[in-house]
Every structure is written in C-alpha cells, then in structure tokens.
C-alpha cells in the first residue's frame, strides 16, 4: 500500500497569558492510500487539534506532517485543495438550492465548468439526491443534508478526507443509517479518510485501524487494526459480527486506564 500521510513526532501546545497548555505530545503514525482511520480518546485529549494540524490551520511546534511526501502548507498554492474537511454540522445555506450548496466549493475555487457540473449532477444522482437539486436544505432530512455536505466536499476531489464527528448532530437511529451510508460512499470513491469520534461503536464499525489517544496531552496509547470477515462489509453489518464486541471491550479497557480511579469505580 502507498503511504498517503505521515505524521512524525508532532507536538502542539496552546499558549495564553496564564501559561502553556500541552495538547499533543510526540504523535507519530502513517495513513495509507485508501485507508479509513478512526481516532478515539478522552474528551480534551487533542483529537480536534490533530485535525487542525492535518489541514494546515495550525502548524506543529515540533515534528512534521507530510501529505504525499510534501510538508502540509509548503506545497503549491493549490496544495490545500487536496484535503477535504467535513464538520459536525452540514453548514448548508438555506437561501441556496441543494445543487447550489454542493457547488459552493467549486464556485469559490472558480472550477465550476461544464465538466464539473456534469460530475456534480452524477454524484447527486449516484448518492441518492437526484430529484432534490432545486430543494432547499430545510426540505431535506438530516441524513440527506449530511449527504449533500459530503458531495460538496467530494466535488473538489480531495485526496484526504478529515471527518470531525460528522454524525454527532443526528439522532441515534438516523446516525446509524447515515454513518453506514456515508462510509460506504467514501469507500466506493477510494478516498483516504480520518474520522474523529467519541463513539467507540462508530469507530469500530467504519475503520481499518483505530488510533487510541491518552488523556491530555494526547499521546498514542495504541493503534489497533480492525479486521472483519468479508461478509461483514458495511458498518451496520459489522455491528452484528462476533468480533465487534471483542474490539469494543479492547478499546474500552484502554480508555478506562486513563480515567481517575474514582470514575472507574462508579
């Protein structure tokens, strides 16, 4: 497998007049092309800081991050377009149609042309939004809105997708369905993806490997490969596999090791 992303001994701290708050400490891992990686850990362990570093919003204080062997932020002026970022909320604009919302990134980057319009229409039909091109966001379900947000991201053809708890705003039943739907779309495109989540079941159901962070400052406690029999080839099917509970207990035990003793005794 080709190496897509390499994170080498990355550390980062937040600074304020009150002092320094370490967020991440000496993080190292690689992500291979086409791999789906999940990152879990206690609240405040630096997961969102990691995504900010990976997309170039902030720079490491120590270490390096390479995308296709090029340091993030030091490539060509279009280098940042290789990274797509999907947030917790869809951030669709109500005054724009679904088609116009999904075309927004292409508009901003001046890439909306006959070919990209055709590709965008194809994605809308392929991913279940055909016939809703002229609808407004308020006319769609939460799951359909998230699908539109994903299409908006994929339209820019990123090499790496960063997913910051993209299903957390949905109710539980919808969350299960949309997670299954969107992860299947991502895998069908062959994109490399990194998912940040607090939901262990979600991480196990979608990931090829899971990175488990310690409490702050975040360090990597373990990187766990996730392997299911071929017939369990979707997140919903994985949840019914015997291996699912084994992985869940393994990850849960590692996370519990970082909790204060009074919390683990409850």
Structural summary, described in words:
This protein is of the alpha/beta class and about 270 residues long. Helices cover about 35% and strands about 25% of the residues. It contains ten helices and ten strands. Helix 5 packs parallel to helix 6 (about 170-190). The radius of gyration is 19 Å and the shape is globular. The relative contact order is 0.17.
Q: What would you say about this model in short?
A:
The protein has 266 residues and is an alpha/beta fold. The protein has helices spanning 47-54, 98-102, 104-108, 114-126, 142-154, 172-189, 200-206, 235-238, 242-256, 261-264, and strands spanning 3-16, 19-32, 36-40, 62-67, 70-71, 83-86, 160-164, 192-196, 209-213, 220-225.
Radius of gyration: 19 Å
Low-pLDDT sequence parts: 261-266
Proportion of residues in extended strands: 15-25%
Alpha-beta content class: alpha/beta
Order of neighbouring strands in the sheet with most strands: 6-7-8-3-9-10
Overall pLDDT level: 88
What is the β-strand count?
10
Strand and helix order: EEEHEEEHHHHEHEHEEHHH
Shape: globular
Largest sheet: 6 strands, mixed
Helix content: 25-40%
Query: CA-to-CA gap between the ends?
Result: 44 Å
The number of helices is 10
